[in-house]
Amino acid sequence: MIMSKVSVIPKILAILVLVNISACDAMKQYFVKETVMCEGMEIFANRKGERLHIKADSMMSRTYTINDINVSVSLIPRLSRWYGGFGLYRPNGVDNLHLVIEEGVQHFSSSDEALEWLDWQNDRLGYMYTSSGLILGWKYQVKDERQKALTIEVWKFFVNGVELKNMSGANNEHLFIVDPGEPCQAQLEESFTPSKSKTIDGRLYSGKVIDLMYERDILPSKVEQAIKDGEAQSRDSHTFFFYNDSEAGFFWVKVDRSGRVVLIG
């Protein structure tokens, strides 16, 4: 009888472990908000001969394939907005591959502000988008076999709660989606309404900037201080001001030729 009880213990422990893992996964899934991909969805992209394939193995796990790299990872749900979005992220890599992954939804009060947001990192990530509204950007770097880095961003844009589609410049030939059945639908945070552009102390701010200022607790006076004393770098029709504040920390401000604050980060 004693032997029988002892033999049952490992089985009980295994069940407890499985229950705990299931509960942990369920808890994580409860916090998943505003993702782009759903289980079984695949993204195929070809940019100047560099092919990227992304598959959603589950709600929070993805497999990324590019050139000689094939890696499956679990992503982390954001519990609060980070630079405007919830969604999923991964800040580290696997073995000799450094990974930076972002997947989620960005909210805007106008399509013009959405395109301005895309312009922010377009030189680095080379964004592509479909007429259905999926946006993808990536950068793959290889220093040597022991040092590789892959940055991937997958987004959907919503303007006043409506998914933004049919943007000019869509590339359905080199970027396309395979859905598992019904198209994946982003689950939005219902309580959030994007701000509209507004003039504050004589300066016009985009709605996106107002939301980001609130998120990061940056006052308009701090923005003005950055424009006055920050390190200025002109790029095309905009100027970036980089500033390190004793309270707000390091941040940058993007201003157009009219003096309007386009974006902060």
What would you say this structure looks like, in words?
The chain is of the alpha+beta class and 265 residues long. The chain has three domains: 1-30; 42-178, no CATH class; 198-264. The protein is built from four helices and 18 strands. The strands form four sheets. Strands 5, 6, 7, 8, 9, 10 and 11 form a seven-stranded mixed β-sheet that branches. Strands 4-3-2-1-12 form a five-stranded antiparallel β-sheet, with no helix packed on it. The protein has a four-stranded antiparallel β-sheet with strand order 15-16-17-18. A hairpin with a 2-residue loop joins β13 and β14. The protein is globular. 26% of the residues are buried. Residues 1-6 and 13-27 have low confidence and may be disordered.
Brief summary:
The protein folds into 3 domains: 1-30; 42-178, no CATH class; 198-264. 24% of the residues lie in helices and 40% in strands.
List key phrases describing it.
18 strands, 7-stranded mixed beta sheet, 265 residues, alpha+beta
Spans where pLDDT lies below 50 across 5 or more residues? 1-6, 13-27
**Biggest sheet layout:** 7 strands, mixed
Shape, per Cα inertia axes: globular
Number of domains: 3
Question: What series of H and E elements makes up the topology?
Answer: HEEEEEEEHEEEEEEEHHEEEE
Average predicted confidence as pLDDT? 88
Specify the helix fraction band. 10-25%
Number of strands: 18
Distance between the termini: 67 Å
Number of helices: 4
Radius of gyration: 22 Å
Strand content: 35-45%
Structural class call reads alpha+beta
